[in-house]
Design a protein that fits this description.
The chain is of the alpha+beta class. The chain has helices at 19-35, 69-72, 84-97, 112-124, 148-161, 171-182, 223-233, 266-275, 281-293, 315-323, 337-345, and strands at 3-4, 9-11, 39-41, 47-53, 58-66, 76-77, 99-100, 104-108, 129-133, 138-145, 165-169, 196-202, 207-209, 211-216, 234-239, 250-255, 258-264, 305-309, 327-332, 356-358, 368-369. The chain contains eleven helices and 21 strands. The strands form five sheets. Strands 1, 4, 5, 6, 8, 9, 10, 11 and 12 form a nine-stranded mixed beta sheet that branches. Strands 15-17-16-19-14-18 form a six-stranded antiparallel beta sheet, with helices on both faces. A hairpin with a 4-residue loop joins strand 9 and strand 10 (138-145).
Length: 371
């Protein structure tokens, strides 16, 4: 893999009293913020150690610029289709800003040498940027790797030890940037100016949460009809308290303030296995519940489904379902990183809204110019 150091812009803490508000607004106001002095410049081409920590987890990774050739040579693999409308939005903003304000999140097999070098900087140097986000109870810290020997070492490790990278988050950012570069709309003066801003976390530094659904079921059919139809495909048992499923091929369901645990019948799991080598719980929900029972033709575009990331727990889903007796909540077992890798290696796309990766990187934390 070809990573490159770059000179970054980063938030000027002296002018930012609310980091949350700054990160929320920077996507649409980057040009104004930069002109007003809300960003500083690192002053040297560097690689950057990045740590995000909260009471539950600590995630450590690297931020660098990535040579576009690794994308064109299919060394960086995705697992999602992209939408033309979203690509157009990103393209317009990128051309206006002349900058990339959020990195593509890439992941790879754990490499001991990378972890050791990251740990060295965290333990022996001071971060040049440290921000606390009160609403999320989360710390974001960044250290600069400026020593030439250390930069060269990290570049060599990525070049020699990593053959494939996987896009965890940022499919639209990467595809849009690639198109602009290939069409010569981004013509930086240096090699790193025309490369893609990227953040790298090893598999063991990522967490994949469940991505749950609230579906407007009872505007289509009665509760009795839905339960009867679902019983053909799965066994349904009431449970006293709400909980998330503990294993694959099981989901929990919240209907009119009652909870149920639902287990797919083996013959329907086997039917999916005949069609697909990798079976996800989201695939089963999409196929048997949405398509077969509810007759939803396109799960990607339907207005009958809302999505709730699992990091926030059950309460947001419960609150939404309690608003409307027609709604049903579905809690789904999370995808494993090995399944994401397997889909990507086979050139397959995960079903929409299958994964919620953590950490989430903020707009404007580190910015790379493209002029």
């Amino acid at each position: 893999m070809r990573i490159l150091p770059f000179e970054a812009y980063y938030p000027n803490k002296d002018l930012i009293s609310s980091p949350e508000l700054f990160f929320d607004e920077v996507s649409n106001q980057y040009i104004e913020f930069k002109k007003a002095g809300f960003f500083k410049k690192t002053g040297a081409k560097s690689l950057y150690v990045y740590e995000i920590s909260n009471t539950l987890n600590t995630h450590r990774g690297l931020i660098a610029s990535h040579d576009v050739r690794d994308y064109t040579e299919n060394k960086i693999l995705g697992h999602e289709n992209t939408l033309a409308e979203r690509e157009q939005q990103i393209m317009q903003l990128m051309m206006l800003r002349k900058a990339m304000i959020k990195p593509v999140l890439l992941t790879h097999e754990p490499i001991e040498e990378i972890a050791t070098l990251l740990q060295h900087y965290i333990e022996n140097t001071q971060p040049f940027l440290s921000l606390y986000l009160e609403n999320e109870n989360e710390y974001h810290k960044v250290w600069a790797i400026t020593e030439k020997n250390d930069i060269d070492t990290m570049i060599e490790i990525y070049r020699d030890k990593i053959d494939t990278l996987y896009i965890a988050d940022g499919h639209h950012r990467s595809s849009t940037t690639l198109k602009l570069l290939q069409n010569h709309h981004l013509t930086g003066k240096t090699q790193d100016a025309s490369a893609i801003l990227s953040c790298y976390f090893a598999f063991d530094q990522l967490k994949i949460y469940d991505y749950n659904r609230v579906i407007d079921v009872f505007s289509i059919m009665s509760p009795a009809t839905f339960i009867a139809l679902l019983s053909e495909y799965a066994t349904i048992k009431p449970i006293k308290t709400g909980k998330k499923p503990g294993r694959k091929f099981v989901f929990t369901m919240y209907i009119q303030k009652e909870w149920y645990i639902v287990k797919w019948k083996k013959k329907y799991i086997q039917a999916e296995i005949k069609q697909n080598t990798i079976i996800l719980d989201t695939t089963l929900i999409n196929h048997w519940v949405m398509e077969k029972i509810l007759q939803i033709k396109d799960v990607r575009t339907t207005k009958l489904v809302q999505y709730f990331e699992g990091k926030s727990g059950l309460n947001p889903l419960i609150k939404e379902v309690n608003k409307n007796p027609n709604l049903v909540g579905f809690c789904i077992f999370p995808v494993d990183i090995s399944e994401v890798v397997a889909f990507s290696d086979q050139g397959l796309n995960l079903p929409p809204k299958s994964t919620w990766f953590e950490p989430r990187i903020k707009n404007g934390l580190l910015v790379k110019e493209i002029v």
